[in-house]
Design goal:
The chain is of the alpha+beta class and about 110 residues long. The chain is built from three helices and four strands, in the order E-E-H-E-E-H-H. This is Lipoprotein-releasing system ATP-binding protein LolD.
């Protein structure tokens, strides 16, 4: 299970301006559940994917994967969780030209 609980991702533009890519977003994805993330450009889809994929950390809120709070884990532990429990199917493929098809898949 992957759970985002009131996750915020913001970027400080200057002393007076903060840009919010996500504001208090919550979602729960159960084991073996397939999810599509759709929306208009600029709606936070990529930010959400980076957070769900444990590629980025939220400004506030909590991400929980397999009952483990990500904020309590080190980078190696986060990488292990990502490797074991998270997978993406992208809209476009990103192959490395020097590798064979099989090598790109593995």
């Amino acid at each position: 299970m992957i759970k985002l609980d009131k996750v915020v991702k913001s970027y400080k533009i200057d002393e007076e301006t903060t840009f919010y890519a996500l504001k208090e977003s919550s979602v729960e994805i159960k084991d073996k559940e397939f999810v599509s993330i759709i929306g208009p450009s600029g709606s936070g889809k990529s930010t959400l994917m980076h957070l769900i994929g444990l590629l980025d950390k939220p400004t506030s809120g909590e991400i929980i994967v397999q009952d483990k709070k990500i904020s309590k884990l080190n980078d190696d532990q986060i990488s292990s969780l990502r490797n074991e429990f998270i997978g993406f199917v992208f809209q476009q493929f990103n192959l490395i030209p020097k590798l064979t098809v099989l090598e790109n898949i593995l």
